[in-house]
Please model this.
Amino acid sequence: MTVNLTPNPELRSQTTALIAASRLITIATAEDSLAASEWLARVQKLRRWVTGIYKDARSPLVTAQKQLIAQEKALLDPLAVAERTVMAEILVFTTAQAEAHRALESATVDAVLAGETPAALLPPAEAMTEGMSTRTTYSHEVTDLRALVLAVAGQLLIDAPATKSQKAWLIATCQPTTQATLALLEPSASALNNLARALRADLAVPGVQVLTHTTLVARS
Model:
């Protein structure tokens, strides 16, 4: 596959000309504003042209990338399944082996304390190849989002002035903990943006401000 990476001189020329023209634009009259809007229309038309050209140029590369990713996935996914299966088998065995060794150690200590001759305590047989060892990692899973939100809210409010009954209700309902900090919660930008687009100025969620951004758009 070959891709033509030579820059298009016409695109470069038009881009350079429009950028140079932008430095001369000042708006003091309606005519100036009209001329500037015509410049904007030319820019947006050129942008669509540039985007279309490079989208077409990237198309074979995108297709090839998808094919390569699919081929890689077809090889790695079955390997990952097989790897997890064998790994689980090894962990079951080595865990049982370690537990049996600890039980034998305990029995040996008991025998010595009882004045008996303990059985020979041999180290566990090597169960994994050199360079491989077990490692425990920790992650999380949110099983009750409402409980998490209540815990964070309760921790934020726990030091606020309140009666004993109010504080007791807060503790019983929210179960606050010093670990439940505000950093555990993250607002959903997509959900809030959808609300803002749907409700516009009527959006009324505490802690959220409606922002507006006005641009000029040329009809194609």
